[in-house]
Amino acid sequence: MTGTVIKNTGSSYLVRTESGEDLNCKIKGNFRLKGIRTTNPVAVGDHVTVSLPDGDTGYITAIAPRRNYIIRKASNLSKQAHILAANLDQVCLVVTLFHPTTSTTFIDRFLATAEAYRVPAVIVINKIDLLEDDPDAMEYLNAASYLYESIGYPVVKVSAKTGEGLETLRENLRGKTTLFSGNSGVGKSTLINDLIPGLQLATASISSTHDTGMHTTTFSEMFDLPDMDEPSAIIDTPGVKGFGTLEFDRHEVSHFFPEIFKTGAECRYSDCTHTHEPGCAVREAVDDHRISESRYASYLSILEDSEEDKYRKGY
Ligand code: GDP
Ligand code: ZN
């Protein structure tokens, strides 16, 4: 039989079969990714074939080719990677403008990484209830939404506390499998609990006393969204803030900033890095406010990292 992996507990996998039952499974066979050592050969979102020889433990015997997947380093010490999820339709980055502030650098790095993975990204701005009485904050909210929408990223403004915007968020999730991500404290767990009545992911108020903040092993889990007219699911990755940074090639960085890439076609030199070159259309657009300064700053910071990598590797 076939099914979808909905949970990865380290030693075993929970597979939701086509008939809708959840089956505990182990792996039979070798499913390593080429060239990368991973802690989990099978990932949440994988479409798998399962055999059920005896008892109630199944064996995953095959994985269907992945449409996409997101990996991150398992830890700073190990060279192994962890596959966060596979076969995603989109990723959703939950951010807050205040309490806590999500930096634009973090947002832009996340978006660039999603571009590199070719997974569409949606930005969810949570805790808008905290901004409503503050005109300056509202202006900032609208400016931030306008910026990212004008680049092409859907922006959904919500309050997990009051429920405002949740219907619009559900619209954005309809018929899709969406990975949720975000810095801790932005209300990601509260939001997922709101979307899936009955689910009780630990939120800050509950988990903070137990939270050591480090070394927490994280396992992705997929949840079906109820009351949707098309199958829709979200994947939670507890404890995972972003995807980590990919190693971008210096000349590739601009590919992952859609507006910079587009404008860059008009630069005098085709290999323009948009830093110092004469006839750079990107720097001109930044000066004219057609490209946002904060986006350009994020682009430069990723470019700098890729330079550092170069020197470290001794190229
Ligand atoms: P996570 O770390 O992203 O999963 O964040 P939590 O869901 O644990 O939420 C962090 C804190 O923010 C908790 O104290 C929540 O009650 C609070 N919170 C979550 N959503 C909202 C919201 O929309 N408005 C306000 N005012 N507080 C919120
Ligand atoms: Zn340029």
What do we call the CATH homologous superfamily of the largest domain?
A: P-loop containing nucleotide triphosphate hydrolases
C-alpha end-to-end distance: 49 Å
Domain count: 3
Q: DSSP helix count? A: 8
CATH class of the largest domain: Alpha Beta
Order of strands, widest sheet: 10-9-8-11-13-12
Task: Give a list of the ligands.
Answer: guanosine-5'-diphosphate, zinc ion
Taking the sheet with the most strands, its summary is: 6 strands, mixed
What ranges have pLDDT less than 50 throughout 5 or more consecutive residues?
206-216
Do you know the CATH topology of the largest domain?
Answer: Rossmann fold
The rough form would be described as globular
Beta content comes to: 15-25%
What is the C-alpha radius of gyration, as a whole number of Å? 21 Å
Query: What are the secondary-structure elements, in order, as H or E?
Result: EEEEEEEEHEHEHEHHEEHHH
**Secondary-structure class:** alpha/beta
Strand tally is: 13
The CATH architecture name of the largest domain reads 3-Layer(aba) Sandwich
Range of helix content:
25-40%
Mean pLDDT: 89
Pfam families: RsgA_GTPase, RsgA_N
Domain EngC GTPase: 86-241
Organism: Duncaniella muris
GO molecular function, one term: metal ion binding
